[in-house]
Amino acid sequence: MKKFVLASLVFILALSISNGFYLNRVVAAPLYRLYVNLVQIDASSASFAQNGTILVPMKSVFTALGYTISIQSNTWSMSNDEGHSIVLNMNSKHAKVNGKPQTLSTAPQIINGTAYISLTSLSKMTGEAYGVDNLRSAAWMGEKPILNPWENLWGAPSDYMKSVNHHGTFIKKISENNMTALQYREENEGVTSDVYLIFYNDKLVQITMNMHLSDFAANAEGTAAVLHIYTKVKNGLNKVYGAASNDQSFTTPSTPKQWMQLANDIQYKPFRFQTEWMEGRTIALSQFSSDGSNHIARITVRDMSADQDVLDTADQMF
Whole-model pTM? Predict the structure, then answer.
């Protein structure tokens, strides 16, 4: 587990995406994480999108796929232990696969000293399946990986989680029977939040953020501000999980007038908005509500492999 994982979690839930997964420029194009057979490629040169095409570093990917590489001038020859062979030339769409001519959709090219090839061409030549998640800036060959960074946190002990969290102020440790929680306080964009890392038998099972929205009145202006916060949280979680699996909220307005109309319609009235994301053993839930006077917001991320009674107890701790 890496130290930036918890930091990215807290920042995402606190309305700020600032971790290394979302670097957004390389050669004036968005970066992509690349996975081969579920393993992230740690290449010195990143994969990126160019004119709608995902370009990947040839040497790193062919090596990860188990190919031996021979380079002579502009000609690259690759072969694996199964007898599959590929020959291609830089800046040419003409290739040979197992000795037979094949035309590529995009020619391989040298960019900043690194040889790149399109993901689609690579899939065509190798026969490997591929996929792309543009929302989360990720691409893969072979089986689709679990992309959210929290999956590897479940089961981590409290001492470890406390040692790697350098964001927010540690408030206190709370213990009830086999349950323990570490409470932190964050402030982002004028909103104070309490973040609870919850453990069962000293293994992380849930992370809960309670946002303090008492400063936002139930009138139209305060309600509009709360709706904007909900949208920011939702967009942040979309960038981790992709499209929500269940969204019971509202269609995002496109103009300030529409925002105020929505706020006017629900000011001083009870409402409840909820959006849910699921991937692997992780579920994330964003809940914003009002009783007509006070706004309430909670974001929960939990390990669904934990016993239900443990998760129920975790929910009741705060």
Answer: 0.68
